[in-house]
Known about the structure:
Layout: E1 3-14, E2 17-28, E3 32-36, H1 43-50, E4 58-63, H2 72-76, E5 78-81, H3 93-103, H4 109-119, H5 132-145, E6 150-154, H6 162-179, E7 182-186, H7 190-196, E8 199-204, E9 207-213, H8 214-220, E10 221-227, E11 237-244, E12 248-255, E13 264-267, H9 270-284, H10 287-291
Parallel strand pairs: 3-7, 3-8, 5-6, 6-7
Antiparallel strand pairs: 1-2, 1-4, 8-9, 10-12, 10-13, 11-12
Bound molecules: adenosine-5'-triphosphate.
Residues 14, 17, 19, 37, 39-45 line the site of adenosine-5'-triphosphate.
Amino acid sequence: MTAVMRAAGLGKRFGRRWALSECTVDIPAGRVVGLVGPNGAGKTTLLRLAVGQLQPTTGGIEVLGGRPAASAAQLSRVGYVAQSTPVYSRLTVEEHLMLGDRLNPRWCWKTARARLDSAGLDPRQRAGRLSGGQRAQLSLTLAVAKRPDLLVLDEPLSALDPLVRREFLQGLMESTVDAGVSVIVSSHVISDLERICDHLVILVASRVRLAGGIDELLASHRQLVGPRRDPATLPGAEVITERHTERQTTLLVRAHQPVDPAWTVSEVGLEDLVLAYMKADAANLSPMEMAR
Length: 292
Ligand SMILES: Nc1ncnc2c1ncn2[C@@H]1O[C@H](COP(=O)(O)OP(=O)(O)OP(=O)(O)O)[C@@H](O)[C@H]1O
């Protein structure tokens, strides 16, 4: 497997708090990867380590086969849109594009112009006067027009209106399919990720809780409903969440072998899967761990 990102024992500590711990994950190239997890789980920290804005406290991370931001060539291969979508407020939209052209050897004016047009951005407008959504559009345009091999997007969609969001996701899918760009995108909106991602990483409380191809993950998880019983006796399956009424037990499990047909078995959707892992960890962590 060619990995676009490879982290081994990666950790980042700010003061006494670990924002990311023991993160070991391989992300295959050519995929659109959704990064999900609760607020404060460490998603932004992982992405900032991947683009070289932060240095690891422990372990290591490789992106596109090299150390993040180790050279100009490496920088030019990674497009990054930070959560805050920073822009230079005194420069115009056009001046941002000119800067993009100067700084990026593979800059594509055609892509930049097409995105500006579809976003309805006036090239003469100062960036400081743009709305939050327009600023996000400008940041995304700059990241896409540099034609990176890897696009890293930290919650890029939250400021966009629903129509623009759909168009952006569509464009993102087309550019990944056409140009073979790998994408890592963090978001809280699972339905958006469901539309474009084929790979998922769930981070909870600074650790990778689950990672893999979405089809494969959905195929291995099931909801089981049956008469109330002790889930500890369930062979060949890892119980992720359990719910009991007086008479009935409902489990979400990761099954490693066919499940006992005595259970009523149903498939799970991506949202159920993500929520189950987030809920399971919230329930299992002690208050000390949660505060860590
Ligand atoms: N520069 C920093 N200094 C100190 N603590 C930080 C810093 N950056 C992040 N943290 C802490 O690290 C933890 C992880 O933060 P991070 O921003 O990576 O989470 P996140 O998963 O992206 O959250 P959200 O979904 O809310 O954006 C949090 O507890 C946060 O307070």
